[in-house]
Amino acid sequence: MGGCAGRRLSDSEGEEANPAVRPPPQDRQGTHWKNAVGFWFLGLCNNFSYVVMLSAAHDILSHQRAPGNQSHVDPDPTPTSHNSSSRFDCNSVSTAAVLLADILPTLVIKLLAPLGLHLLPYSPRVLTSGVCAAGSFILVAFSHSVGISLCGVVLASISSGLGEVTFLSLTAFYPRAVISWWSSGTGGAGLLGALSYLGLTQAGLSPQHTLLSMLGIPALLLASYFLLLTSPGPQDPGGEGEADTAARQPLINSEAPEWKPGSSSHLSLQERWTVFKGLLCYIVPLVLVYFAEYFINQGLTSSEHREFAMATTCISDTLGISLSGLLALPLHDFLCQLS
């Protein structure tokens, strides 16, 4: 039953999937684990390039690879400090520049996604995310300047932002347990991404070869989506029994008709704004949490609003991280001027 989830959803938009007969219990159990593992890998792979770029921030800004030099390290091993009198190890540009390059494109994508991203089928979105992730590793690995490296970081940000909006929207068509698996995967990316870059470089591998060795991650993302995920089952989008569904109270009151995959594409701008206002009580605290962490997210809404809500609420972490990066730039310069 493996294959493209987006294609089986009629690429999320414009068509209704034909009702299917529920699989036998043993098959449903196997399907559950395939989807759970699939979303764990999607969470891991989607955030991996973002984490690696932050881990490589100091290398990106401290060194420029001269032509013919296979290392990202200058022939002169002595770093040039922004202020030689400072007690801090300073770059000429704050590493917050990498943070902003790694988060602002994601912020733009998440801000614009509710306006029209749903019109683009799922499959092209996932392919674009995978290609951008691979391109980010290649561009930074072979870069000769900080500017080109930052362009590679921007590609990683596009990949992460587009992927997060896409995969969180996709969870609306699967049992709600997959959200926990997705979140676990993104948490694993934070740990494995940082440790893999640090471990490989400390083991003697050059930053260039370290980044190139991570090209398997985008391939794993595409394989998880196209080969591992199974059909979400349109007759039971949430994957819940009648008793469980009745026990869940909507966080946003609505008298809307029965929900079908892709129905969020028919929401008017006024409806989208109404849903967004109802989500502010969840968005604002998340912004504060991620702002404090750098200087997770789910909208449960009666069911036709679920896909749109999942794609919208994920702006919380990105906005908090963006604000922290903006404030870190002047803070970096202030600290580096201290004697």
UniProtKB/TrEMBL annotation:
Instruction: Return any one Pfam family short name.
Output: CLN3
Q: What highest taxon heads this organism's lineage?
A: Eukaryota
Q: Where in the cell is it found?
A: Endomembrane system; Lysosome membrane
Q: Where is this region: Disordered?
A: 1-29, 65-87
How this chain sits in the membrane, per its record, is: Multi-pass membrane protein
* Keyword Acetylation part of the UniProt annotation: no
Annotated transmembrane regions: 37-57, 96-120, 132-158, 178-198, 210-228, 275-296, 308-329
Which InterPro entries would you find in this protein's record? Battenin_disease_Cln3, Battenin_disease_Cln3_subgr, MFS_trans_sf
Keyword Protein biosynthesis recorded: no
**Gene Ontology BP terms:** lysosomal lumen acidification
> What is one GO cellular-component annotation here?
lysosomal membrane
Key words of the record: Lysosome, Membrane, Transmembrane, Transmembrane helix, Transport
Annotated family: Belongs to the battenin family.
| Name listed for the protein in its UniProt record | Battenin
**Which lineage?**
Eukaryota, Metazoa, Chordata, Craniata, Vertebrata
